[in-house]
Each structure stands twice: as structure tokens, then as C-alpha cells.
């Protein structure tokens, strides 16, 4: 009898860990998708000739829609079941990815990315919420969350490597077709290995709250994008005003609703809200770095996609190692001490680039330092966020965590990437031999300058790319100083907000 019970226990444990492996497939895909497109931008720019604004929207349309819908989808999953929502999202994501791979215009690609964001929003909160259903024991769940968070960081870091390998041998559409072989195992094995989550039938979704959350995020993101490409004007101020007003109305509505879309009471826990904010900022650092590093390596240093991706492998290895190694450390070191130390790695990474320039060696070292900090922060912060919520609100807490992640992705490309673009456009000194059309293309983006140079004689092409590369490097230096300052600010926020009350159990570390 004892042997039978032990065999059943081992079988159940194996089922849980196999289920975790299946859950990691959409996590890996969605996070790879956040950074893989950066490597494909030169090829996409050559094929579709996007404007500077369209180039940014190609990356951010996905994260923008994803962030706007995550809270809604997290609450929907609480009501209908996260396994059901995960499977629907996986099927939709795969279908739309295939259609996007064959886009013929920049606008088609942007629309495709937006629809991918709709289905991606169904995936991410469900994966984290299902961990509570699969792993009921605290210690097992802590390890599972660490694996989930490490996969999150590794996915973002692997984007350049995956993109480099695919683009070395295939056309740019291959980065979207990747979704099919990754999601098919989930669609087959998910119903067999994953239990349905606990449902919260407290009420329907509130469409007004959904609209308010999307307008708030959309207004702020659009304002930043327009300011980066066109300068600060009335449109920027109007967009910020609309976004801020919608955000204020959203918060007021959530506090008054009996069944809110986002449970704002969770933010009364300082550790929870501090972890969410730090999670957002750390992902913005990582994605912003990848946005300009991938273009710099391929266009300015003239590295092949594969060679450029291999240059970032040390950082990807650090993300994997540190993401797992931090678990026992987080049980012994207080949050308000550990997180600032990890943020310091990110600050040093940007300070290195700002003070020493953007050579290949500096970029490789900076990416490794950045991944040490971000990889560990993602693991620790998500464990805190998930542990702070009651089981019935796992989807809501997961959605808040994922919203912070995706907003960080949007802000990384919008703010940091937008600053690089703005400096590039302001600092570029164009050669006089360019026609008006060539000058317009070259002044919009680094990819545009590279496209123009490909049609010029050797000496003229070299002169144009020297000017364009110098302007782009100047933008990298500016953004690195800004990011260093933001990292210092994040350290102060973490030091003050993550202090646990003396009566709080140590396991929340």
C-alpha cells in the first residue's frame, strides 16, 4: 500500500513538472517576440520601407495592445478558467503569426502585431495564474515561479539570438512562423497536463474600465512616440493630457466598483507595489538596450545577424544562471537590500556604455551586466507579487505583474528607443550630394540611411554611414546617461518601498 501511495505521489509530481514545461512554451514565445523583431528591423526596413514612426510601431503595437488588455484578460481568466483562455489564445496567436509573416506593407505588419497582442494577452496572465493550480505547496511554487521568471528574462534575452539564427538563413517572415512549432505542443498536451484554475464568478467584465485602461496607456505611449519623431508640440501635450485623464478616471472607477477590473487594494501593500514598479523599470532597461544594440551591431559595426546575436550570448547565459541562483539568496537577504544591489548592475551597465562608448566589447560586457540584474529581479519580484495575492485573485495579480512587464517593454522602446531616434535625427549631418528623397529616408532612421547607402557609390556610401553611425552612437551615449540616472532612482525606490514590516513572515522574501 505504501509503495502504491509513493508511486502515485511520484506520478503526480512528474505530471506537475511536465505541466510546467508545457506552460513555459507560451512564456518563451511571447517574450522572445518582444525582442526578436529588433534584429529583423534592417531586413524589414529594406523590404517594407517603414517611416521612423512606423518602425517604432512595428515593435510597440504588439506590446501596446498586450499591455492594454492584460488586466482585462487576467480578470476574464479568473471568471472562465485560465486553461481555457490559454488554449484559445495559443490557437489565435499561431494563426495571426502566420498571416503576419506574409505582410506586404508596413501597415499590414503593424496591424498583425496588434492582433498578436490581443491573443498574447490571453497567454501571459494564464501561465502565471495556473502555477497556483499546478503547485499548491509553497516551496514547489517558489521554484516554479523562479523557472517561470527566468524563462521570462531568458526569452527577452534569447530574442536576438533566435532572430540572428533565423535571419541568417531565412527571410524576415520566419521570426513570426516560429510560433507554430512552439504552440502546437501546448495545444495538444495542455488539456492533458494542466488542471483548470479556480474560477471567480463574482461578476462580468466592465467594458468602460477596459476602454479607460487602453486610452490611458495609448495616450501616454502615443505622446512619447510623437515627441520622439516630431518634437514636443500640441499633439504631445494633448496625448499626455488624454492619457493622464483616462488613467485618473480608471483608478477612481476601480475603487468604486464592487468587482473591479484591477484590484487596486493590492497596491496598498508597499512590497507588492514596489515590486511591480521595479519589474517595469528593469524590463524597460533590458528591452531599450536590445532595441538599439541590435541595430548598432548589424548596421554600424556591419556584423551579420548571426555574428551579432552570438555577441550577446554571454548576457543570455548570465540571465539563465542568475535567474535560478537568486532563489536561495532571496530567502536570506532582505528585499530592500537585494533589489538595489541587482539594480546597481543595470546602472553600471549603462554607465559603462555612457563613459566608454559603444564598442563591441563594451556592448557585450554591458549586456551581461544588465542581464545579471534584470534576470534576478524578474524572479524575485514575480514571486513577491504572486505570493501577496489570495488564490481567487491569482489572475488579477498575475495580470498586474504582466502589465508591468509589457508596459516596461513599451517604455523601453518608446522612451529609450525614442530618445535614440530623436538624437539621431537632430544630430545627423547629411552629405550634400543626397537628393531630397534620399535625405528624407536617411534622416528618419539608421535603417533608412543604410538603405540609401546601399544604392550609392562606395565613397559616398561610406561618408553617409560614417555620419549616420556617429549620430546613432551619440544617441546611445545620451540614452545611457539617462538610463544610469533612472537606475539610481530605481535603487532609491526599492530601498524605501521594499522594507518588510517586522511582523511580516520571512517567506515573502
From TrEMBL:
Assigned GO CC terms: plasma membrane
TM ranges: 17-41, 56-73, 85-103, 109-131, 143-166, 172-193, 205-225, 231-251, 272-294, 306-330, 337-356, 362-386, 407-426, 474-495
Domain Major facilitator superfamily (MFS) profile: 19-502
Molecular function terms from GO: transmembrane transporter activity
Keywords noted in UniProt: Cell membrane, Membrane, Transmembrane, Transmembrane helix, Transport
SUPFAM superfamilies: MFS general substrate transporter
Keyword Transport among UniProt keywords: yes
Location of this chain's protein in the cell: Cell membrane
Membrane topology of the entry: Multi-pass membrane protein
Stated name of the protein: MFS transporter
